[in-house]
From TrEMBL:
Gene3D superfamilies: 3.30.450.200, 3.40.50.11500, YVTN repeat-like/Quinoprotein amine dehydrogenase. Residues 72-98 are annotated as: Disordered. Forms oligomers. Interacts with 6 of the 7 known isoforms of 14-3-3 proteins. One of its GO terms (biological process) is regulation of Rab protein signal transduction. It comes from Muntiacus muntjak (Barking deer). Residues 68-500 form the UDENN domain. It is found in: Cytoplasm. The lineage of its organism: Eukaryota, Metazoa, Chordata, Craniata, Vertebrata. This is DENN domain-containing protein 3.
Length: 1247
């Protein structure tokens, strides 16, 4: 932190010309005539840390509370100015400036800083003026910002104040008579890396109460002590902990960021809402989003920076990428001639000059709330999209922006700090509402961008995105899409960054968006959306709100709410529902009071301050409840920082290591690595002896260096211009957004190249792409009569509509949804159901004779009707025959395997068939399209039924790899039960299923509806072996997945008598270091006793006592170790007094009796099992996941074993690939995850 004291004038002994100008100015002020122009300010003193010099250590033995106050050491460091004339000083006066440069933080120019501290010029006054502050933002050449707070005050030029090193010099310079009654401005500027605007303003206000009335020679001491206090205050880590510091007479609060991704907010975000009408706020935001050349004007220098910073906060997480100079002094106005985008601020006095001299500027007057253009030229700034704008305006109008209205019914506080705390709490709540409101505005504008992204190839299809925008909004989006800000936004979306935008999008998405995340088939308007186009009646989406595992007797896709058919149309009820202020739950915050700092500032006093900090932090940590891990992590972080400053490096590392157990998000990896590298040899040796530090050092020093991607650019989709082989064709189709699944694209390639060379020319691809997009556009225009829509489910979509044909049930068009076929009759439009796909018994394509003509006819036989449906489809007959059979086969597979994804994939196949036929338009087009009849061919070639036991136990399947290019193996599953917390949304209270895929990807499902709650995010690049989680006081498991490879395997714990705390050690063969896991026992079993307890040690199980000492080692046989095999895990069955274990690579389960562990275990062989992969305990059963033979093929199998009888109750043919993981859900269901060949999750009922 840098502190600069700016004085209006350099000392007369150093600059006689300035003293003459000052005298003239003072005389002019007294006579009331126009004086000379403003004077040049100078930097008089600079204070930079460190403030404790080496010589201070000599006083370490002295009591810092009783040190004499006569000892003074100047912390003033002078910097040479070009115009200072050396050698003309007064005899006995101060020495000339030291030529040695001081250490100034990057981005701070001491030669330019005086102009910014006095942006309106430095002028003397004939009467005292009110103290004032303003704020600076300083940017270096790399774009890094530092922040300044400047406090200006005036001092009279009376003789008693005119001392410098104890001597009067103003009289010596001849100013005694002329300077009487004059007041000279001074300024103190604090420069920080953090935008603590309000906190530093309060600090400087406290400082000025001392500076205005002290002697000149005392100024440096006051500022030195002030600087030292500020530099000793640590910056709080992101989270709920704020720091309080006593800067008499005020208590100063240094707030923290809400989370690591959020900006630090220490200003009043409602200031622009007081200065501008909501429509003007939206207009300014539109200027920012389209990256115009913007200039703020105000008569208040402070408002220039504060209002500009508020708009920067409104854009979060989008970031302004261009020049940002909220204050320009009079000498800097030429900056406004820059041709690039910028945001700058000027005093209102320069408004006319700037308006006439510069072109193409947006001029924003903060004082009157107007927006104009330079030279009266109209700048093309489009409006914010109408629907988002209307909602924003209504929410702004509902905000309570005046604190006085909340205080009207309260008594006046007699404690100034209590009143300030109340005002601060109100402001914090209001800031939170405004942030949520502006964030929802951005989400409303850009929510559907994600629908046009291809994550694998980093492609954005801007042309298709613009086509989906309302006509009146397209100009806005065209300009925004070309900005640097939007390009950075796209990079964040394609990197799946879980920032504030992604979280708000997740929390506010509709059920339709959630379900679309599970769909493989292309999107089509739902019946409910069609109904919303025809009726202006509002539709309220009803969500299913539960907090427990659902009964999976009949899993159906939830009903979808409609999307707005046009962004330019606003329904009355929808607008009315948006008027209420966002219901933002109050975020609880905590404060920690920094101890008092004793002076003079010598090493011992500083060490005493650090010791007080550590003691108070330790005391605060001791009083915390065990489940308050978030706040505990902040205390660990702060204590680690303080111990670093003390030089206690090992203690600091231990505190930082504790962040892994509490909140890894605030773990300072770079700081820890630097600390480890600075350890001395004895300290490093001592650290290696401590298991926690040894692990920490290993993780920090061995972490991979983040290497930037070779090409992280965002590419815009373009049609190919050269012939494509298979690999290039797969990439192009994925980039287009048509299909992502590589297997489906391979079949599409075969279809398009039937009878030709195995490559696709650009014209064929273009024709195929156009056919696909035309079909999408036609589907959007499908309109059904209300009487027809009443016969269909709300979530049904019309995927294919035939031409008008003659059938045995009338003339009309055949329509296909994902559920049924029906006839849309002509004349008087009506609905005639043909059949649901589930009820079809046979589909045939035949020739009907009419006179001398033979007409291709489609015949469909159903189970519920004796009459066969016949339709003279003519040229469309063969295509409809393929499509209906594919949908019939997909429906049957979905029913047999309890997997709705088969229907979705069948829909993709039939739409691709339609596009292929439209592309080729040749006699062989139908044969080519038949290459996509994947499920129909599968049904005919492998008519194997699902085993009865499997079908009865299997309840549902979900596909975490939906939307990926290929199935991915499921490494870990974790179910977290639901709970109701008043501070959380009801949706967040639903039970969740956490699914870890390979390469460190995690997907979260809402277990009440089995829709995706959170799309794929990454936690490292390695495979996750297990999941770390914390158990909250409400009984909810809160996962905390650390980055990289987890350290242990899956374990299971049971309880101990009298709810004692059990230590369970589990040591894998490849990892010699174990960790101790302490778990509070929930259900005591007195019959189990107090130990001993088993622990795995690779090739054996080690039985330990409650104190951790080993007492027995369990092995299977002598050859077990020689095979290099290790235990997969073990399960304790306290009621049966059994210990179950399984080994990698074996097909046997081993059971020990806890009554006599010396006896060899019982060996249970699993029939048709090749290898066991996982094992869990569910009630009185053991579920074993393995690979085994089923119907003559190697598949994933699950063996359900009765613990009492020690027999296999069921063999379940679970997956097409091996069963990799098992998870219990409230002991009502078991979830299994498959390998990468299938990549699906099966849900099984527990009996």
């Amino acid at each position: 932190m840098l502190l600069c004291v700016q004085r209006g004038l350099p000392h007369p002994s150093l600059c006689p010309s300035t003293s003459e100008a000052t005298q003239a100015a003072c005389v002019a002020q007294r006579k009331g005539v126009k004086g000379p122009s403003s004077l040049d300010p100078a930097v008089l003193s600079v204070f930079v840390p460190p403030f404790v010099m080496k010589e201070d250590s000599q006083l370490a033995g002295m009591n810092c509370m009783t040190l004499g106050k006569n000892r003074k050491r100047s912390f003033r460091k002078k910097r040479e100015r070009p115009r200072v004339e050396l050698g003309k000083g007064v005899p006995g006066g101060p020495r000339g400036p030291d030529l040695e440069d001081v250490s100034i933080p990057n981005g701070v120019d001491l030669l330019a800083l005086p102009q910014l501290c006095f942006p309106g010029g430095l002028c003397v006054a004939s009467e005292p003026r009110e103290d004032c502050v303003h704020f600076l933002v300083l940017t270096d050449v790399c774009g890094n910002r530092t922040y300044g707070v400047v406090a200006q005050y005036y001092r009279p030029l009376h003789d008693e104040y005119c001392f410098y090193n104890g001597k009067t010099h103003w009289e010596a310079s001849g100013l005694g008579g002329g300077a009487a009654g004059c007041f000279v401005p001074f300024a103190v500027c604090v420069v920080s890396r953090f935008p603590y605007y309000n906190a530093l303003k309060d600090c400087l206000s406290c400082l000025l109460t001392h500076l205005k009335f002290c002697k000149d020679f005392e100024v440096d001491n006051h500022i030195k002590d002030f600087a030292a206090k500020l530099c000793l205050i640590p910056s709080p880590p992101p989270g709920p902990l704020h720091l309080i510091f006593n800067m008499k007479p005020l208590q100063i609060v240094f707030p923290s960021r809400a989370d690591p991704e959020s900006p630090l907010i220490d200003l009043d975000l409602h200031l622009p809402l007081l200065c501008f009408r909501p429509e003007k706020v939206l207009q300014i935001l539109a200027c920012l989003l389209t990256e115009q050349r913007i200039v703020f004007f105000s008569s208040s220098w402070a408002l220039l920076t504060l209002v500009a910073e508020c708009f920067m906060a409104y854009l979060h997480p989008l970031q302004w990428q261009h020049t940002f100079v909220p204050i320009l002094s009079g000498q800097m106005l030429d900056f406004l001639m820059a041709p690039t985008s910028f945001l700058m601020g000027c005093h209102l006095d320069h408004f006319e000059e700037v308006s006439k001299e510069a072109d193409g500027l947006i001029l924003i007057n903060i004082d009157n709330g107007n927006i104009t253009y330079s030279n009266d030229e109209e700048v093309d700034v489009p409006d914010i999209p109408l629907l988002a704008a209307q909602t924003f305006i209504q929410r702004v109008q509902s905000l309570q922006l005046h604190h006085e209205l909340d205080l009207a019914h309260l008594c006046t506080s007699t404690d100034v700090n209590e009143g300030r705390a109340s005002r601060r709490a109100w402001q914090q709540q209001l800031n939170c509402q405004i942030q949520q409101m502006t964030l929802q505005l951005l989400v409303s504008i850009f929510r559907e961008v994600k629908n046009h992204l291809n994550y694998e190839h980093r492609v954005f299809n801007s042309e298709e995105f613009l086509k989906t925008r309302a006509l009146g909004d397209q100009q806005f989006y065209k300009q925004v899409l070309d900005t640097y800000m939007f390009h950075a936004f796209l990079k964040a979306r394609l990197s799946r960054r879980m920032d504030a935008f992604a979280q708000m999008d997740l929390h506010t998405q509709s059920e339709e968006d959630r379900i679309n995340g599970m769909l493989l088939s292309p999107r089509r308007p739902t019946i409910e959306k069609m109904a919303s186009r025809k009726s202006s009646a509002p539709h309220a989406a009803h969500r299913r709100m539960v907090v427990s595992m659902p009964n999976l007797q009949d899993i159906t896709v939830p009903e979808l709410p409609p999307r707005n058919s046009s962004l330019r149309k606003i329904q009355t009820m929808e607008c009315g529902s948006s008027r209420a202020v966002l219901d933002v739950p109050p975020k609880s915050t905590h404060t920690f009071k920094i101890p008092e700092i004793h002076f003079p500032l010598v090493a011992q006093c500083v060490q005493a301050f650090y010791a007080d900090c550590v003691a108070q932090l330790s005391k605060a940590m001791g009083s915390l409840a065990p489940e308050n891990s978030v706040l505990l992590a902040r205390y660990f972080y702060l204590r680690g920082l303080v111990q670093l400053m003390q030089g206690h490096l090992l203690g600091a590392l231990l505190d930082f290591q504790s962040l892994y157990k509490t909140d890894v998000r605030v773990f300072p990896a770079d700081l820890v690595q630097t600390t480890v590298e600075s350890l001395s040899a004895p300290e490093r040796t001592q650290a290696e002896r401590t298991p926690e530090l040894r692990r920490l050092i290993s993780e920090v020093m061995d972490r991979p260096v983040d290497t930037p991607k070779a090409d992280d650019r965002v590419k815009n989709f373009e049609l190919p211009k050269k012939h494509m082989q298979l690999d290039d064709f797969v990439k192009r189709v994925q980039e287009s957004g048509i299909v992502k699944d590589a297997g489906v694209i391979h079949r599409l390639f075969e279809a398009l190249t039937v009878g030709h060379q195995k490559q696709i020319d650009p014209e064929t691809f273009k024709d195929f792409y156009n056919c696909w997009k035309e079909a999408e556009a036609e589907a959007q225009e499908v309109s059904l009569p209300l009487s027809v829509m009443e016969q269909l489910d709300k979530n049904e979509c019309v995927y294919k509509l035939s031409r008008s044909v003659k059938t045995n049930r009338g003339v009309g068009k055949i329509a296909m949804t994902q559920k049924r076929l029906f006839l849309l009759t002509e004349g008087r439009p009506g609905y005639v159901e043909i059949s649901t796909f589930r009820n079809i018994e046979d589909v045939r394509s035949t020739m009907a004779t009419f006179l001398l003509l033979r007409i291709p006819t489609l015949k469909i036989k159903t189970a519920s009707k004796k009459e066969v449906f016949e339709a003279n489809l003519k040229t469309e007959c063969d295509l409809w025959h393929l499509m209906v059979k594919e949908m019939w086969a997909g429906r049957k597979l979905a029913d047999d395997h309890k997997d709705p994804q088969y229907v979705q994939q069948a829909l993709t196949h039939i739409l691709l068939m339609d596009a292929v036929v439209g592309t080729l338009q040749s006699p062989g087009a139908i044969y080519a399209a038949s290459k996509l009849s994947y499920f129909d061919r599968m049904k005919n070639e492998m008519p194997m039924a699902v085993p009865k036991t499997t079908s009865e136990t299997l309840k549902h399947k979900i596909n975490p790899s939906a939307g990926e290019t290929a199935p991915q193996a499921i490494d870990v599953l974790l179910y977290t039960p639901g709970h109701l917390d008043p501070a959380e949304k009801v949706e967040d209270a639903h039970p969740k299923l956490w699914c870890a895929l390979n390469e460190g990807k995690v997907i979260v499902f809402d277990a009440s509806s089995w829709t995706i709650h959170q799309h794929c995010f990454r936690v490292g690049t390695s495979r996750l072996d297990s999941t770390d989680f914390l158990v909250g006081k409400d009984g909810t498991n809160r996962p905390r997945v650390s980055e990289g490879r987890c350290e242990s395997t899956t374990w299971r714990f049971s309880s101990v008598a009298q709810s004692k705390v059990m230590s369970l050690l589990f040591n894998m063969l490849s990892r010699p270091v174990t960790r101790r896991l302490q778990l509070e026992c929930l259900t005591p079993h007195s019959d189990v006793g107090k130990g001993p307890w088993p622990a795995g040690t690779g090739d054996s199980i080690l039985v330990v006592n409650m104190n951790g000492s080993p007492c027995q080692e369990l092995k299977i046989d002598g050859s077990f170790k020689e095979t290099g095999t290790s235990f997969l895990g073990f399960q304790l069955m306290p009621e049966q007094e059994q210990l179950w274990a399984a080994c990698a690579g074996y097909s046997d389960v081993y059971v020990w009796s806890l009554q006599d562990l010396a006896q060899p275990p019982q060996r249970i062989h699993l029939q048709d099992c090749s290898e066991i992969n996982c094992m869990i305990r569910v009630k009185k059963q053991i579920w074993v996941g393995a690979t085994g033979l089923s119907q003559g093929r190697l598949k994933g199998k699950i063996y359900v074993m009765d613990a009492e009888r020690r027999t296999v109750e069921k063999e379940l043919a679970a997956h097409a690939d091996t069963v990799k993981t098992l998870c219990s859900a409230e002991d009502r269901y078991v979830l299994s995850g498959a390998g990468r060949e299938e990549g699906k999750i099966a849900i099984w009922k527990v009996e």
